[in-house]
């Protein structure tokens, strides 16, 4: 990974972390445990790739940094909620996330469920707030697009497909795995890449280009995640590895093998880069991020 991207990711993660810390303040009184669980699930971990996509997609269109940071924080909250719920015993039953006990291990299952619910609700409240953007039409579009990305035709639908695939006796196909991963992981990454263009009221051509970039990036990211699950250690990733194979989960790595899956991820990254041609040098960091997606070890 280039030194330029390393520094840009570090700076963006620090800014997003500060914004999250402000938007998720500690509470006193009976709600304090819920607030603590929300902060535990969200703060102090992760590369903030989705938030970074918001910040970088906003730059070409002159969006105020404070506005982009609020949207980045909202997406990171929604992503955190999804991880809290994915880790629950009823879902993936994971005990480790980002190198520390998962939220339900630290706070109990009931509090973890509430923390996830509250993070999701708070994310939409932030997008709908005037502090995020002065134009109500922009705020409505952000809310609408995130709702689609995270709902039954997005992340939640993908999780349902994942559960059904585990229960099914039918062998997975490349198409069925691709659709599952598009919904479960790709839609939120796609929205993250589009969000800066929405904030900046970008021309439809450039907004669509960023959507396409995010879609291909998300697909490559998921394949890379599956490769890591099959090849990396828990120390490298900060979470349990090898669970997909143990659970019999449908992945492209399992279907195609490591070499063919890696080749497909490389093709997707090349496509993602091509979608950015109309943005010229303003999208250089987004191109670097696409390359990093398949080179990472965590």
TrEMBL record:
CDD domains: Trans_IPPS_HT. This is Polyprenyl synthetase family protein. PANTHER family: FARNESYL DIPHOSPHATE SYNTHASE (PTHR43281:SF1). InterPro entries: Isoprenoid_synthase_dom_sf, Polyprenyl_synt, Polyprenyl_synt_CS, Prenyl_diphosphate_synthase. Belongs to the FPP/GGPP synthase family. GO terms for cellular component: cytoplasm. Its cofactor is Mg(2+). One of its GO terms (biological process) is terpenoid biosynthetic process. GO terms for molecular function: metal ion binding; prenyltransferase activity. Signal peptide: none annotated. Keywords: Isoprene biosynthesis, Magnesium, Metal-binding, Transferase. The keyword rRNA processing does not apply.
């Amino acid at each position: 990974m280039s030194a330029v991207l390393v520094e840009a990711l570090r700076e963006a993660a620090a800014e997003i972390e500060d914004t999250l810390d402000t938007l998720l303040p500690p509470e006193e009184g009976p709600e304090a445990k819920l607030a603590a669980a929300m902060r535990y699930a969200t703060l102090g971990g992760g590369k903030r790739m989705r938030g970074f996509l918001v910040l970088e997609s906003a730059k070409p269109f002159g969006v105020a940094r404070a506005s982009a940071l609020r949207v980045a924080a909202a997406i990171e909250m929604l992503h955190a909620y999804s991880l809290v719920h994915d880790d629950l015993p009823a879902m993936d039953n994971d005990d480790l996330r980002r190198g520390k006990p998962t939220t339900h291990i630290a706070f109990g299952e009931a509090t973890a469920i509430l923390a996830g619910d509250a993070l999701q609700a708070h994310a939409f409240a932030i997008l709908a707030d005037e502090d995020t953007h002065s134009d109500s039409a922009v705020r409505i579009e952000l809310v609408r697009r995130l709702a689609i990305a995270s709902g039954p035709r997005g992340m939640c639908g993908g999780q349902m497909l994942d559960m059904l695939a585990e229960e099914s006796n039918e062998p997975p196909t490349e198409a069925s795995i691709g659709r599952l991963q598009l919904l479960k992981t790709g839609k939120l990454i796609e929205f993250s890449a589009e969000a800066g263009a929405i904030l900046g009221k970008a021309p439809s051509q450039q907004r669509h280009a960023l959507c396409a970039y995010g879609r291909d990036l998300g697909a490559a990211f998921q394949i890379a995640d599956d490769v890591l699950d099959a090849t990396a250690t828990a120390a490298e990733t900060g979470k349990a590895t090898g669970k997909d194979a143990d659970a019999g989960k449908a992945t492209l790595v399992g279907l195609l093998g490591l070499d063919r899956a890696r080749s497909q991820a490389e093709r997707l990254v090349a496509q993602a880069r091509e979608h950015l041609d109309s943005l010229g040098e303003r999208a250089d960091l987004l191109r670097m991020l696409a390359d990093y997606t398949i080179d990472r070890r965590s």
